[in-house]
Structure formats: C-alpha cells, structure tokens
Write a structure and sequence with these properties.
single chain; 18 helices; Aldehyde Dehydrogenase, Chain A, domain 1; binds nicotinamide-adenine-dinucleotide
Length: 506
C-alpha cells in the first residue's frame, strides 16, 4: 500500500492532517543504533516485569483502561488529526482498545494459568504446562487504526510478561506515542514500551533483527518480506494482512438492515479497514431493489472532516492513497463498470477525499475486481443463487472476513461454514473486531495467526512443559528397566492395552 504523506526531512518525519494539510507533529527517525538501544532498554526492564506475576501486571492495565476514558478527548484529537478520520471512528478505536484491556483483565489470568495434565502413566507421573513470555515482542503496524494496532495489540503481549518494541506506520506515529504515554502514566515502566519511527524498509527491517516474536499488521506484499526476515532468524511471527471481503445477500434477507451492513462495512473508516466489505454478491431477483436502496443510503452520507460528531465519512490517509483508490475506480469505469454513485474525488473538501462509491458491472479485466482497493469503493455483483455466491466469495487469494445475510439464522450458519475466511459475520459485517473472546485473523493470503481470545494472548508466550515422576523404584524410567522377563513384558503390554479403554487414563 503506497502512501507517502509523511515528509521525511533528514532525521525527522513531519506529520500533517490529510484532511486539512495542517502540521500536527513530528517524530525523530530511528537509526539502526537507536533500534538496537531501544531493544536493549526493553530487554533490561523485562525480567522484573515478568517476575511481578500476572496479578500485579493487571493493575497497570486496570489504570490504563480507566485513563483511556479520562483522556478521551486528547485521544480522539490525536487519532483524528494524524489520520483524517471522523470523531466517531476515533471513538471506535478507543472502544476497541478499552475492550481489549477489559477482556484480558477479565480472562488473561485464566488463559495464562499453568495447566495440569495427565502424565505418561497413571499414579507415578504428572505434567504441567506453563506459558512463559517470549521476552521482547516486536510490532510493525499500519496507519489505518493507529491506536488499536500499535497499542491495543501490545496489551496482551505486556500482560503476558513481555516488553514490546513497536514501529508504527510512518504516517501515523502520534497515536502510538500518546498510547505509550498513557501506559507510563498508568504505572508501567516506560522502558517496557519502546517506539521506533521511520520507513519500513530500514527501521522496520532492523526491528525484526532484535525481537523474539514479531506481530506484523499490514499489506500482504510487506507481510511476505517480514515473514522471510523472521524465518531467517527462526523467530515466530503473526501476519495480519489484507482482504477483499465478500458479503452475500440472498432473497429473504432484511434488505434495509443488509444495506446498513454494507454502508458500515464498506465505508467505515473511509473503507480503509482490513475486514471492510469490498464485494457484494446479491441474488439476482432482489439485485435492483437492493442496489437502489444502497445507492440512496450512500448518497445520504455526510463526507468531510471536523473535530465534531457530524461527519460520516472522513478523508483517506494521504493524497497518494486517494490517487491509488481513484486509479482502481477509473480503470474499472474505463473498462465498462457502471457507477451507481460516487466515482470521483471530492477535491472541494481536501486533497485526499474520495466520494463513497458503489459500482456494478465489474469484471475480471479490472484491477479492483481482485485487488485490495482499501478505500470507499464497493462493487455489487448479481448471482443466481447461494451456490454461485459461495463459489464467487471463495474465488479469491484472500480469506479474512465475510458476511452473510439470508433472513434465516440456520441458512446463514450453514452458508458461513462453506466460506473460506477466518471470520464470517451473520447479519453484521464488522462485528468480529469487537468480539474479543474469539480469535480473529485470516486464511490464505490474509495472514497467519490470530488476535483476541485465548490464542491472542498465548501467541506471545512459549509453552514450557514440566513433567514429573516419582523417584521411588526408579520412577517412570524404572518401569521399562524392570522388564526383565517375558511375563513382565506381557503384563506391561496388557496394562497398556487396557489404558485406551479406561476413561481418565486415555
Ligand atoms: P504496509 O504493508 O505498507 O505497511 C505496514 C507497516 O510495515 C508499516 O509500518 C511500514 O512502515 C512497514 N514496512 C514496510 N516495508 C517493510 C519492510 N520491508 N520491513 C519491515 N517493515 C516494513 O501496509 P499499510 O499500507 O501501512 O496498511 C494497509 C494494509 O494493512 C492493508 O493491506 C490492510 O488490509 C492491512 N491491514 C490488515 C489488518 C488485519 O488485521 N488483517 C489490519 C489493518 C490493516
């Protein structure tokens, strides 16, 4: 995803509001030595944090959770000013970060608790599994949700006992800086959260060399590169990548509600959402009605930017990104796509605004048919029936999120199970991101690994198995050592044969 709004002058990046052009701050570009020093500071602070234990680590997260609401206006202003998004979307970021904190405050301790397991043989052995932090977890993050993806994702890593080293997008580093400040104000040793800024190809690549686990969120193209770099170092990584997410609407679906799903799924955050709706497969017999309803609702959206609550759709993150979105639209229109609404820039509002766009007659010759546009552009496709809808939904290299609208919970669930995606929403498009107890992530080229839920915290830990045996009579080793005759061998074999049949010993 090319976007170069941030100007890098020598060792500093100047951040400006893409909606207004106003300068909103700057950050220093890290050198290789800075990244190394930041990693070292974090590593020095980590053992004491791990030794504190999860209960005492929770206290920081409790204070952080409440502080988010005490300082919410400052958070909204910072997110909005560096990204060009609306105030409602900035509130959405705060709610997800607070929700992540709340979820792991309630469940983190139980997810991280040492587990007791059956040993190799009954009575004389036992086993326990502990979850030890990796040590230093690195995050490389994009610009579309600068607070959630840099700070929200770091919360479970910290609670698990790690230090973190974060490289936010060079376009939106200020929300992460504010998040770090909030964590320090909440009582966290500031050395445990290190931020390094600068271009991905240099600072991001350098970060990979110093961490024990890498959490990457960004485009599939960059994900491939960082996965190779992580593999070279034999460190694990999770990759939260792109999507071209389908929505299926069948006759029988509540159409007004489905249009609400399309509008929020397609245009929330100006379409710059990894799980955004991009392709809508609508059963032919309701296609015209659905298209007309969608068009009418989209035309009512208020586009613009302000620090008030009055806007529905904000700016794109940069002029360059707006140009890329428009290239997709113009390529499609030039090859025969029909614009139902939108289809042009809103230069009257600023240099990075694109009108919410609904297209139809999109075919394989057009770039936006398969590639991630990552802007306020949704394409409608008529389909014969559910089977064609599922086949076309699955005909993609991506598999992040999908949504299904049929009017019947049973039919929707059956359809959802046939879709190749890490998550499927029924009667909702973006719900997965707020459902903190279940894993969220992609299949196919949408990624590897999951955030949220049990997996979302255990991924920042390594399992350590502690197996024990009684010492008497040589313990477990003694069992085999004592087989010195055919009769004993037969008894042991008979006991093993029986184990499969006795509940509790299997
Ligand atoms: P991007 O891949 O261009 O950049 C992401 C981050 O990687 C940035 O911090 C960038 O500086 C860094 N980077 C770039 N090249 C690098 C390299 N060679 N080595 C190390 N780091 C490098 O993505 P973007 O344009 O910032 O973000 C948009 C993309 O993110 C979209 O594809 C979107 O779908 C995806 N995304 C995915 C999720 C998810 O959860 N699956 C969430 C949000 C965004």
């Amino acid at each position: 995803m090319s976007a170069t709004r941030a100007r890098s002058v020598q060792n500093e990046i100047t951040i400006s509001n893409p909606a207004t052009g106003e300068r909103v701050g700057s950050v220093a570009v890290a050198t290789a030595a800075d990244v190394k020093a930041a990693a070292l500071r974090a590593r020095r602070a980590q053992p004491a944090w791990e030794r504190l234990g999860v209960r005492r680590r929770r206290r920081v997260l409790e204070r952080f959770h409440d502080l988010l609401f005490e300082r919410q206006d400052e958070i909204f202003d910072t997110i909005q000013r560096e990204s060009g998004k609306t105030r409602r979307e900035a509130l959405g970021e705060l709610l997800i970060v607070a929700g992540t904190a709340r979820y792991y405050l309630a469940h983190g301790e139980e997810h991280l608790a040492e587990e007791s397991h059956p040993g190799a043989s009954p009575l004389i052995t036992g086993a326990r599994v502990g979850h030890r932090p990796y040590g230093l977890v690195g995050f490389i993050t994009p610009w579309n949700y600068p607070f959630i993806l840099s700070i929200g994702d770091a919360l479970p890593a910290l609670l698990a006992g790690n230090a973190v080293l974060v490289k936010p997008s060079e376009l939106t580093p200020l929300s992460a800086e504010l998040g770090r400040d909030l964590l320090a104000t909440s009582g966290l040793d500031a050395d445990l959260v290190q931020l390094v800024h600068g271009p991905g190809a240099t600072v991001g690549a350098e970060l990979v060399d110093h961490v024990d686990y890498l959490g990457f969120t960004g485009s599939t193209a960059t994900g491939r590169k960082v996965a190779v770099a992580a593999a070279e170092r034999l460190i694990p990584c999770s990759l939260e990548l792109g999507g071209k997410n389908p929505m299926i609407v069948l006759a029988g679906a509540p159409l007004e509600e489905a249009v609400t799903g399309l509008v929020s799924g397609g245009f929330y955050n100006t379409g710059q959402t990894c799980i955004a709706v991009a392709r809508v497969y609508v059963e032919s017999r309701i296609f015209d009605r659905f298209a007309a309803l969608a068009r009418r609702r989209i035309e009512k959206l208020k586009v613009g930017w302000s620090l008030d609550w009055d806007m529905d759709v904000g700016s794109l993150v940069s002029r360059e990104h707006a140009a890329k979105v428009m290239r997709h639209v113009e390529d499609a229109v030039g090859k025969g796509a029909t614009v139902l609404t939108g289809g042009q820039r809103r230069s009257d509002l600023g240099e990075a605004f694109v009108a919410p766009t609904l297209l139809t007659d999109v075919d394989e010759s057009m770039e936006l048919c398969r590639e991630e546009t990552f802007g306020p552009v949704v394409a409608l496709y008529p389909v014969r029936d559910a089977d064609e809808a599922v086949a076309r939904a699955n005909d993609s290299t991506y598999g992040l999120n999908a949504s299904v609208w049929t009017g019947s919970a049973r039919t929707s669930r059956a359809l959802a199970r046939r879709i190749e995606a890490g998550s499927v929403g029924i009667n909702s498009t973006l719900l997965i991101y707020s459902t903190f107890d279940v894993p969220m992530g992609g299949v196919k080229e949408s990624g590897i690994g999951r955030r949220h839920g049990r997996q979302g915290i255990l991924r920042f830990t390594q399992a350590q198995s502690i197996v024990d045996s009684i010492a008497t009579g040589g313990g477990y080793e003694g069992v085999l050592a004592n087989i010195t005759s055919e009769a004993r061998a037969r008894s042991l074999a008979a006991a093993f044969k029986l184990m499969r049949r006795i509940p509790g010993l299997r």
